[in-house]
């Protein structure tokens, strides 16, 4: 499947390559600050929805 749009693929080297390799081998993952912010926002929304439905 081809993707349209402006994307840039860059090689992974150095510390990033080591971290990615370790994550793959251990079944882990890597996330950047934007991903963590999104995860936090979604978890807070879910938590708030649960609190609001209990009232």
A few lines on this structure:
The protein is mainly α. 64% of the residues lie in helices and 0% in strands.
Describe this structure in words.
With 55 residues, this protein is an all-alpha fold. It has one domain. It is 64% helix and 0% strand. It is built from two helices and no strands.
Key features of this structure:
55 residues, mainly alpha, 2 helices
Q: Any chance you could write out the topology, listing elements then pairs?
A:
Blueprint: H1 14-26, H2 33-54
Radius of gyration computed on alpha carbons: 18 Å
Largest sheet: none
| Poorly predicted parts | none
Give me the strand/helix succession. Answer: HH
State the total count of DSSP E strands: 0
Number of helices: 2
Shape: elongated
Q: What integer is the average pLDDT?
A: 81
Category by helix and strand content: mainly alpha
């Amino acid at each position: 499947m081809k993707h349209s749009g402006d994307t840039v693929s860059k090689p992974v080297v150095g510390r990033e390559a080591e971290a990615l390799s370790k994550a793959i081998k251990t079944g882990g993952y890597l996330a950047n600050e934007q991903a963590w912010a999104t995860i936090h926002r979604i978890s807070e929304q879910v938590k708030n929805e649960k609190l609001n439905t209990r009232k």
